[in-house]
Amino acid sequence: MTDFLAATRAFYDTVADDYADHFRGYLANRPLERGLLAAYAELVGRGGTVADLGCGAGWTTTLFASLGLDVFGLDLSASMLAIARREHPELRFEQGSMLELDLPDGKLAGVVAWYSTIHTPDDRLPALFAELHRVTAPGGHLLLAFQTGEEPRHLDRPWGHPVALDFHRRSPERMAELLTDAGFTLVSRTVRERDEQADESAPQAFLIARKAAATDA
Question: Which among 173, 117, 179 has a CA at the least distance from the CA of 142?
């Protein structure tokens, strides 16, 4: 396991309980995000499986399931997955890395990376998006969420735990370019201003992209 993957897993294994307690129910106060997630679910439809990659405690996985999608979650952190499985026992959660998915080519109707590429270094993003393109079925859709900006945020000793991690912020234009380079076509680009009441430190970006279908040729 590469250093950044090991660091990410160790970070979330350590802070899992506090993280889940702090952010539990955050989508209830995010009507724009809920609307975007619902729109994405409608784009994907019910004709195939959706992977919620970097699912954490399973909140977006659960929302997609409530919208009728065949969805499963995947995460690096065993501790985060333990929370997801305990709180959502009816759903499937697996441990693994989105950089090396144990899935055949074109398996997924939808791929979601909801704030889960934010720990991936810039030089690994092309390989990551190539892997996401590989497992997406022709005509399938990708949803990507991240914070905007140029400089990473370094979080040190959250909730008093002896761990630290970088949270990368990215340009929506650059991320869209990388998705296009990987073979996706951009469908939508949404940027929401930061919510000061929620103590957000940066605007939030949401990209939806599509893999070409055979009928597009």
Answer: 179
> pLDDT by residue (tens digit) across 32-48?
999 999 999 999 998 89
Whole-number Å distance between alpha carbons of 98 and 110 = 14
Three-class HEC string of 5-55: HHHHHHHHHHHHHHHHHHHCCHHHHCHHHHHHHHHHHHHHCCCCEEEEECC
- Per-residue pLDDT band for 195 (boundaries 50, 70, 90) equals confident
Which whole-number Å values give the CA distances from 53 to 58, 163, 217, in the listed order? 10, 23, 29
C-alpha dist (Å) from residue 97 to 54, 81, 211: 8, 13, 21
CB 15 within 8 A of CB 161: yes
The residue to which tokens 């929370």 are assigned? 83
Q: Which residue type occupies 140?
A: G
